[in-house]
Amino acid sequence: MYNVPQFIDTEDKIVGPLTAKQLGWLFGAGGILLVLWNLLDFAYFVIAALFVLALAGAFAFYRPNGQSFLKFVTSMVFFGFRPKIYVWKRDIQSGLILKKAPAKKPAAGENLRKKALNQNKIQEISSLLDNPTTTWKY
Fold first, then answer.
1. pLDDT tens digits for 42-52?
2. Using an 8 Å Cβ cutoff, are 15 and 23 in contact?
3. Residue ranges per structural domain of the chain
4. Strands of the chain, DSSP E
5. Which pLDDT tens digit goes with each residue over 97-110?
């Protein structure tokens, strides 16, 4: 008997309730804050720190529609720059491309009108459909 892994779509927790990606975002924010602490005055540092912490918190913890915030932002940017019209592209690799049959040209004497159904023909077809023992002629 073999053990089947469960919950394969959830990430492993590394430290407490945090995953490796979340720790990466938080350590990255900490590094940015360390650089900003050395470069900016305290008032400017507080404003920049709030922005960096909000952004890092969103990337680490916010999951809109069950996807990561990074994937959400990437989709939003691509949606802004890509055309909104879907153009069908033929898949040549599939091998399901059929050749177009040439149109049949009518002979000189052929009638181009559609055949009209009269009442007798309709009744004949109806009787054929109503009777299950009728043999079909093709």
1. 999 999 999 99
2. yes
3. 13-81
4. 13-15, 18-19
5. 556 677 777 666 56
